[in-house]
Specification:
The chain is an alpha/beta fold. It has two domains: 163 residues, 3-Layer(aba) Sandwich (Rossmann fold), CATH 3.40.50.300; 70 residues, no CATH class. The chain is 37% helix and 24% strand. The strands form two sheets. It has a six-stranded mixed sheet with strand order 6-7-8-3-9-10, sandwiched between helices. A four-stranded antiparallel sheet has the order 2-1-4-5, with helices on one face. The longest helix has 16 residues. It is globular and about 50 Å long. The model has no long low-confidence stretch (mean pLDDT 95). The structure holds adenosine-5'-triphosphate (ATP) and magnesium ion.
């Protein structure tokens, strides 16, 4: 187990976005986190990554409590995330975007030269090395998604939180991103995958956890979860929208 979340709650005013959530994530696995729009998936990532402080509950990562720590400390402890709406340093070249992670993340590079070399390698792994654009803002959607992953990988995470990497991509692009995520898992990184593209979730996930209105309504192996009645009622009835 690499992550253990106990009784986690987060409200926005009167809205309970996460309600006393208990869950665990196994080391080396891909855990799919699915659920309807507004069920609290991104809020969960925001709390785990330190962007938001939880109202209640405990987050234990890699044997240490990280509840309420600021984002840079959580990042250095080995958790990286991507954003649903991509957030590159838009006016900086892709390489420099990735260098930032190598300089400020876990196990930072010892020199600019090393940061540049390692960032170049991460651009290669993520399939961005042939994209010669002056600034990140010039990248197309799929490449901005890849850059999100590259920037997260640059911090050398043990746990990677992926928030809707496939949204808006065509099926060919989805296949490529599935392959990239599988490769990242095979390199030893544990992943939590928030995703509405079910085909990808089913293909990649070792286990799936389902949220609805901030609560865990099901968890288990992919085939168990997608036939679970509660899950069909709360979420999979909407599957057509995401096909
Ligand atoms: N910063 C915020 N301030 C106020 N309300 C918020 C904030 N962030 C999220 N919410 C609300 O919390 C609830 C959960 O939102 P969240 O973004 O976590 O859902 P989600 O599962 O990621 O949905 P989606 O699949 O659409 O991305 C929603 O009702 C949302 O409107
Ligand atoms: Mg979301």
């Amino acid at each position: 187990m690499i992550l253990e979340v106990k009784n986690l709650s987060k409200s926005f005013g009167g809205l309970k976005a996460i309600k006393q959530l208990n869950l665990t994530v196994n080391k080396g696995e891909i855990t799919g986190l699915i659920g309807p729009n507004g069920s609290g998936k991104t809020t969960f990532f925001n709390v785990i990554s330190g962007l938001l402080k939880p109202d209640m509950g405990t987050i234990i990562f890699d044997g240490k409590e990280v509840t309420g720590l600021p984002p840079h400390e959580i990042c250095r402890s080995g958790i990286a995330r991507t954003f649903q709406l991509t957030k590159p340093f838009a006016r900086m070249p892709p390489l420099e975007n990735v260098m930032v992670g190598r300089i400020y993340g876990c196990n930072p590079a010892k020199s600019m030269k090393q940061a540049r070399e390692e960032a170049g390698e991460i651009l290669r792994i993520t399939g961005l090395d042939r994209k010669h654009v002056p600034i990140a803002a010039a990248l197309g959607l799929v490449d901005r998604k890849r850059l999100e992953i590259a920037r997260a990988l640059a911090t050398k995470p043990k746990l990677l939180l992926l928030d809707e990497m496939m949204a808006g991509l065509n099926s060919r692009e989805i296949e490529d991103v599935i392959k990239l995520i599988q490769d990242i898992k095979d390199s030893g990184v544990t992943i939590i995958l928030v995703e509405h593209v079910l085909k990808a979730v089913l293909k990649l996930s070792d286990r799936i956890i389902v949220l609805s209105a901030g609560e865990k309504i099901a968890e288990g192996f992919p085939h168990e979860v997608i036939t679970n009645k509660k899950v069909v009622e709360a979420y999979l009835g909407e599957e057509q929208h995401y096909a």
